[in-house]
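Hi P.,

Sorry for the delay on this. The queue was packed all week, but I finally got your sequence through. Input first:
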Amino acid sequence: MGDDGPTQARPPAAAPVRAPAAAAAEGGAGSPPTALYEAALRSTDGRLWVRHADGRRAPLPVLTWRGGLAPGDASLLRRCAGPTLDVGCGPGRLAAFLARRGVPVLGIDVAPFAVRLARRAGAPALCRDVFGPLPGEGRWSTLLLADGNIGIGGDPGLLLGRAAELLAREGRVLVELGTDPEPGRGPVRLEGPDGRVSRPFPWAFVGPGEITRHAAAAGLEVVATWDSERRRFAALAWR
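Then the structure:
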């Protein structure tokens, strides 16, 4: 696809969206979150947990991310029409599948080892931050925010505003929603099986009851929702 990205009409210009300061600078004591994430990707068992601000700890499905298609993925992938940007692609299972199907796709992730795994799987991928410069801005037909990646940066409205900048006028943002009964936002930490804990970083958890409000803040609207294999999704488009 090249660094020029897909060729489609760009939506009307808007003030550029920048990453929140907290996301740009991971302060506090502990290891960088990417270090623990990449250690889990390299391990045989993929053990990794997220520690919420209220003290709750939940396992992360690293083996699922590292494997083939997961239950529910098919319902998301069949809605990827045209050039697709997979934001937070991780080891690239979704982007690699689309590439094998001949769909123009690009995965981006801030973890270099995850990008290497994505490329090995056959996915075009770059080590980039969604809030930084990207190929094809304003010309992507589909943006994927799967596996909880609506939480990137800790501010869903800001992230969707950036997604709107990247999206073609007739494009769609496909979002996986959380099933946590108490969605919210706040600093979280990653914890590894060896006791290492990451520095806190901003993240958000968005359920079906919040996505309409966050979409509206970005000039988008929810045009479809669906459930598949106990996962929840929404499609967003320009209002």
